[in-house]
Amino acid sequence: MNKVIFAGALSAFVMASQTAMAADAKGQVLVLLSSETQMALQGNAVYPTGYYLNEFGVPAKALVDAGYEIVLVTPKGNHPVADQRSLEPQYFDNSDQQMAKIASFVASLPDIDNPLSLDEVLANGLAEYEGLFIPGGHAPLIDLANNPKVGEVLRHFNANSKPTAAICHGPIALLSAQADPQAYLEKIKQGKSASANDWIYEGYRMTIFSDPEEAVFEQSLEGEKLLYYPADAMNKAGGEMAFAGEWQSNVVVDRELITGQNPFSDKALAEALIKMLDKQFAE
User: Fold this and answer.
1) 148 pLDDT more than 80
2) pTM of this prediction?
């Protein structure tokens, strides 16, 4: 990435972003990111991971521009990191300038280095948040898919019909909203027969990074294999999966749930989330 472009963009956008977030907001949107940076693969291999820059930054900036304040949370309350593979212009309309703009926006977020932990969020209560957004990258497969505390957060937004949006691998977090997400995911990893127990999203239409897209990604691992494919795990849990062609933007809306299939769904997902939030705000 061009460091000169980054430096110029940072000075141009940091103050504007902070001013926008400091203004009177329509409400707060909770943004749930993974705490993890290393994903286990089959065998003893690991893969460096994190959030995808565009999947986090593009919807987050759209939310701020639309008048919402975003509040970051990770399971451990630690600084989330970007997956280095996401620092590619192809995810930003092939524009280095757009990539630098989003990177500068993310760097300017007041709580990017010190997000809340899940324990803090749950202790403080969730009533103040108007919606929930879960970016992708492979990291959510590690600590968001099998986390009972994530399940508590999801159940709040589901029970109160408040928007929940997740993109690419982010929807895997939805699996935490069942009776025993850890046992379910362990069976999935072992290739055993598995069924979700009391999953609040059973029967919802949704999407996630598709099997064909995951197969393409897996080919880049030099012979290593993922522990499981997320689309398969969601389907076996009872999700009504809906996919577009590989690398095509695809957003599925069912009740309060908004899911995007892949990195190229970032703008459409942001639009759907803001539309639902604005409707809620107007009521």
Assistant:
1) yes
2) 0.91
